[in-house]
Amino acid sequence: VLELFLPKKLDMKILGIDYGRSKIGLALSEGSLAFPYKVIPATHAIEELKNIFQKESVDKFVVGISLKIFR
């Protein structure tokens, strides 16, 4: 089952996005480990994410959404 979540290419860049109402945490991975990248304000997320995708040549992204946001 774990194989479904691991990238086929180990040199693929994946951006992890931890979405929150006020802040968005980002992590960058090249392979099987991700490392903290930066925290951005949610109000400027789209433009900032566009810049990061271009600057870091991101291949894929994953989004984690807190269950608290739906309460």
Q: In brief, what are we looking at here?
A:
This protein has 71 residues and is an alpha+beta fold. 17% of the residues lie in helices and 41% in strands. It has one helix at residues 45-56, and strands at residues 13-19, 23-30, 34-41, 60-65.
- Please tell me the overall pLDDT: 85
**In total, how many beta strands?**
4
Reported for the largest beta sheet, the result is:
4 strands, mixed
Which strand order spans the largest sheet, edge to edge or round the barrel? 3-2-1-4
Write the H/E string, N to C. EEEHE
Number of helices: 1
In oligomeric terms, what are we looking at?
single chain
Residue share in β-strands: 35-45%
Radius of gyration: 13 Å
Keywords for this entry:
about 70 residues, alpha+beta, four-stranded mixed sheet, 1 helix, about 15% helix
Fold and architecture overview:
The chain is of the alpha+beta class and 71 residues long. The chain is built from 1 helix and 4 strands. The chain has a 4-stranded mixed β-sheet, with helices on one face.
